[in-house]
Write a structure and sequence with these properties.
2 domains, 14 helices, disordered N terminus, mainly alpha, PGG_dom, 3 strands
Length: about 350
C-alpha cells in the first residue's frame, strides 16, 4: 500500500528516501547557499569590479559614479553583468523552490531545482572569471584552475563508476560501513565550510586587496586595474592563484555534497568512499587556498607573510587532530561493545 501511494506521487518509497537524504535533508544549508550567493551577487551588481569614476569628465562623456570597467573594457563589463545577474536570479529561484520543497515532492521538481542550481553556480563562475581577470596571466591562470578542477571532478565520478561497475564485491551498504546519521552530519558541516569559502573567495576576487586605480597613467597603469597588480605583481599573482583555487575547489565540494552517493568500499578492515575522500580533498584545498590568498593579499613584506604562513600548520593540526581522536575513540567504543 505504501509503495502504491509512493508511485501515485511519481516517486517510489526507495526513491523518496534517496531524494530526502540529499536535497530535502540539506534543505536549510542549500537555502543558506542560495541566500549567500544572492547577497554577494546583489552587492557585486551594485558595486561593479574596477570601481567607479570619482569625478565628472564632460569632455569624455563621463559622470561621477559611472563604472570604470564599462569604459575601459566594455566586453568584460557586459559578460560580468550578465553572468552575475543570471546567478542572482537563479539563487532567488532556488530559494523559492527550497521553501516549497516537501518530502513527497515529484522527481521532476527536484530535477528542475538541480538544473537551476547548476545555472546558479555556472553564473557565479562566469561572473568571477569576467570580473577578476585583468591581464593575460589572470585569464590563463583562472582557465587553468577551472580546467584542473573540472578534470578532478570528472576523475572522481569516473573512478566511482569504475569501482562500482567492475568491483561489485568491494561495495558495502551505508549501514555496514558507517553510521548514517554521522555521515549526514559530516556532509552538512562540509557544505557549510564550502559555502563559507566560495562566498569569501568570490568577493575577494572581484575586490582584490589594495583597491583599484581611479585614473589612467600611460605606461604605468590603467583605471580600474588593481593597485596591487602594479606595485606588487608577484603578490597579486599569488593572491589570485590561491583565491581562484579556493573558489573552484569550494564549488566542486558543494557539487559533491549535493550529488553525493553512498558508495563505500572495503579497504582492509575498514571502508572508504571515493567521493568522501575527494570531498575532504576539495575542502582542504579550499581552506589552504584561502590561507595562501590571505597571506599574499594582507601583507606587503616578507616578514609579515612568514608570520601569517606560520599559522597554517597549527590551524590544519587543530582541524585534523580532533577528527582523528574522535574516530579513534569511536572505534575503541565499538570494539568494546562487540566484546
Amino acid at each position: 500500500m505504501a509503495s502504491t501511494e509512493g508511485q501515485g506521487k511519481g516517486i517510489t518509497e526507495e526513491d523518496d528516501g534517496v531524494e530526502k537524504s540529499m536535497e530535502y535533508q540539506l534543505k536549510k544549508y542549500l537555502l543558506l547557499l542560495a541566500t549567500l550567493v544572492a547577497t554577494v551577487t546583489y552587492a557585486a551588481g551594485l558595486n561593479l569590479p574596477g570601481g567607479s569614476w570619482p569625478e565628472d569628465a564632460p569632455a569624455k562623456g563621463r559622470l561621477a559614479g559611472d563604472s570604470i570597467l564599462r569604459e575601459t573594457n566594455y566586453t568584460r563589463y557586459i559578460v560580468f553583468y550578465c553572468f552575475n545577474a543570471v546567478s542572482f536570479a537563479a539563487s532567488l529561484v532556488v530559494g523559492l523552490l527550497l521553501l516549497v520543497l516537501r518530502k513527497g515532492v515529484t522527481v521532476y521538481l527536484l530535477h528542475f531545482m538541480q538544473m537551476v542550481m547548476v545555472v546558479d553556480l555556472l553564473g557565479l563562475v562566469g561572473a568571477y572569471a569576467a570580473g577578476s581577470s585583468h591581464d593575460r596571466f589572470t585569464t590563463a591562470c583562472g582557465a587553468a584552475v577551472l580546467v584542473s578542477g573540472v578534470a578532478a571532478y570528472a576523475a572522481v565520478a569516473i573512478l566511482s563508476y569504475v569501482v562500482v561497475s567492475f568491483y561489485p564485491r568491494l561495495r558495502r551498504t551505508p549501514t555496514q560501513s558507517r553510521n548514517q546519521a554521522q555521515a549526514e552530519s559530516e556532509r552538512e558541516i562540509l557544505l557549510v565550510l564550502a559555502i563559507f569559502a566560495v562566498t569569501i573567495a568570490y568577493v575577494a576576487g572581484l575586490n582584490p586587496p589594495g583597491g583599484f586605480w581611479r585614473s589612467t597613467e600611460e605606461g604605468h597603469h590603467t583605471a580600474g586595474d588593481p593597485v596591487l597588480q602594479e606595485l606588487h605583481p608577484g603578490r597579486y599573482r599569488a593572491f589570485f592563484f590561491f583565491n581562484t583555487t579556493a573558489f573552484i575547489a569550494s564549488l566542486l565540494a558543494i557539487m559533491l555534497v549535493v550529488d553525493h552517493r553512498r558508495n563505500y568500499f572495503k579497504l582492509g578492515m575498514g571502508s572508504f568512499s571515493v567521493r568522501y575522500v575527494a570531498l575532504y580533498g576539495f575542502i582542504l584545498t579550499a581552506l589552504l587556498g584561502l590561507s595562501g590568498a590571505y597571506a599574499a593579499g594582507s601583507c606587503r613584506d616578507s616578514k609579515h607573510t612568514i608570520y601569517v604562513l606560520s599559522l597554517v600548520a597549527p590551524v590544519v593540526a587543530c582541524i585534523i587532530l580532533p577528527g582523528l581522536l574522535v574516530d579513534k575513540a569511536t572505534d575503541q567504543a565499538t570494539t568494546a561493545g562487540m566484546r
